[in-house]
């Protein structure tokens, strides 16, 4: 039986609807709007697309949405100055500095200079540490792993006791926080990566596979346990000569055509984890605004 397709676009719209409702309630109660500042340095084409999508979604959710686009020759000190200004701006509850930053800018320094209370990407060491120790009440969880968890929740519920999860990839942005979230939800977690001895055999143990390595079509159908849930975090642009010269298409880290024959449930690319990332950015910003207003934290579990 072919796999259930997990509709990330639909689920992301459900999250965004809830954000929008909660933003308007905040506005009625306090006269304030959640404020999101997105900072783009340079003219990377893919980054421009993503940043535009974030700025637009924030406006759709009824936020105060600002985009700062800086030239590629911006200095690290100039960027740090902008971050300081946004840290001090009471109308801004979330700051996102789009990665990657141009060569010559110390990205870790810039990211760590964002105030932890406005770090809606969840990259500040304070947020990383809180997620690491399972202290979620005041943590911003990175948007991609948080979105992936909500999709997993649609299939397995919130308690993953007794299930084996294999995360392929150990990045600070996805793999490591993903593993922490899965552990917090009682899964038995393996983090595999390029130095893992038997990657196919390791993945075959998984009831839940999260692929986040940035290698197009790495995970094959015969790597999967039949019925497994497959969450494909990869967003790879590959040449698509069938669409014309110099045309590209997006593919995940999973060979979808093969995997869909074996998996129980699978996320597509596009239309899977990507849209969830953007909606969870809105959710984090909303939560930040509620916190600043002294209101109780809203939850974003996607009950069916
Ligand atoms: N500080 C920072 N925070 C980020 O969260 C961040 C970042 N830097 N740098 C780049 C990556 C990438 N990222 C994506 C978000 C949404 C889609 C997304 O919505 N993708 C659509 C397709 C979009 C398209 O067609 O290109 C989909 O998968 O359906 C993709 C990629 C956030 N990132």
Automatic annotation (TrEMBL):
Listed Pfam families: THF_DHG_CYH, THF_DHG_CYH_C
Reaction(s) this enzyme catalyzes, per UniProt: (6R)-5,10-methylene-5,6,7,8-tetrahydrofolate + NADP(+) = (6R)-5,10-methenyltetrahydrofolate + NADPH; (6R)-5,10-methenyltetrahydrofolate + H2O = (6R)-10-formyltetrahydrofolate + H(+)
Tetrahydrofolate dehydrogenase/cyclohydrolase NAD(P)-binding domain: residues covered: 142-291
Domain of life: Bacteria
Catalytic activity, EC: 1.5.1.5, 3.5.4.9
Tetrahydrofolate dehydrogenase/cyclohydrolase catalytic domain location: 6-121
InterPro entries named in the record: Aminoacid_DH-like_N_sf, NAD(P)-bd_dom_sf, THF_DH/CycHdrlase, THF_DH/CycHdrlase_cat_dom, THF_DH/CycHdrlase_CS, THF_DH/CycHdrlase_NAD-bd_dom
Amino acids binding NADP(+): 169-171, 235
Pathway given in the UniProt record: One-carbon metabolism; tetrahydrofolate interconversion
Record function comment: Catalyzes the oxidation of 5,10-methylenetetrahydrofolate to 5,10-methenyltetrahydrofolate and then the hydrolysis of 5,10-methenyltetrahydrofolate to 10-formyltetrahydrofolate.
PANTHER family xrefs: C-1-TETRAHYDROFOLATE SYNTHASE, CYTOPLASMIC (PTHR48099:SF5), C-1-TETRAHYDROFOLATE SYNTHASE, CYTOPLASMIC-RELATED (PTHR48099)
Family of the protein in this entry: Belongs to the tetrahydrofolate dehydrogenase/cyclohydrolase family.
NCBIfam families: PRK14188.1 (NF010785)
Subunit structure: Homodimer.
Identification of the protein by name: Bifunctional protein FolD
Encoding gene (name): folD
């Amino acid at each position: 039986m072919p796999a259930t397709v997990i509709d990330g676009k639909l689920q992301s719209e459900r999250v965004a609807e809830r954000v929008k409702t909660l933003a308007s309630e905040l506005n009625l109660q306090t006269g304030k709007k959640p404020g999101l500042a997105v900072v783009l340095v340079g003219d990377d084409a893919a980054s421009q697309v993503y940043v535009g999508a974030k700025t637009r979604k924030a406006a759709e959710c009824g936020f105060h949405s600002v985009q700062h686009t800086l030239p590629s020759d911006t200095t690290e000190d100039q960027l740090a100055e902008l971050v300081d200004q946004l840290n001090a701006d009471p109308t801004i509850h979330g700051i996102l500095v789009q990665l990657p930053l141009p060569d010559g800018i110390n990205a870790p320094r810039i990211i760590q200079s964002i105030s932890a209370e406005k770090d809606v990407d969840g990259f500040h060491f304070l947020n990383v540490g809180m997620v690491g120790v399972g202290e979620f009440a005041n943590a911003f969880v990175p948007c991609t792993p948080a979105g992936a968890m909500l999709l997993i929740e649609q299939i397995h519920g919130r308690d993953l006791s007794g299930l084996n999860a294999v995360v392929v990839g150990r990045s600070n942005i996805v793999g490591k926080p993903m593993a922490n979230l899965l552990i917090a939800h009682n899964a038995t977690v393996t983090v595999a990566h390029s130095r893992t001895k038997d990657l196919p055999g390791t993945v075959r143990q998984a009831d839940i596979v999260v692929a986040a390595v940035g290698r197009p079509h790495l995970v094959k159908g015969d790597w999967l346990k039949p019925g497994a849930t497959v969450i494909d975090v990869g967003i790879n642009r590959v040449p698509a000569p069938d669409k014309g010269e110099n045309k590209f298409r997006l593919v995940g880290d999973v060979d979808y055509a093969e995997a869909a024959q074996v998996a129980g449930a699978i996320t597509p690319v596009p239309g899977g984890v990507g849209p969830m990332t953007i909606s969870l950015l809105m959710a984090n910003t909303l939560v930040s605004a509620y916190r600043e207003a002294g209101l109780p934290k809203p939850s974003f579990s996607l009950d069916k």
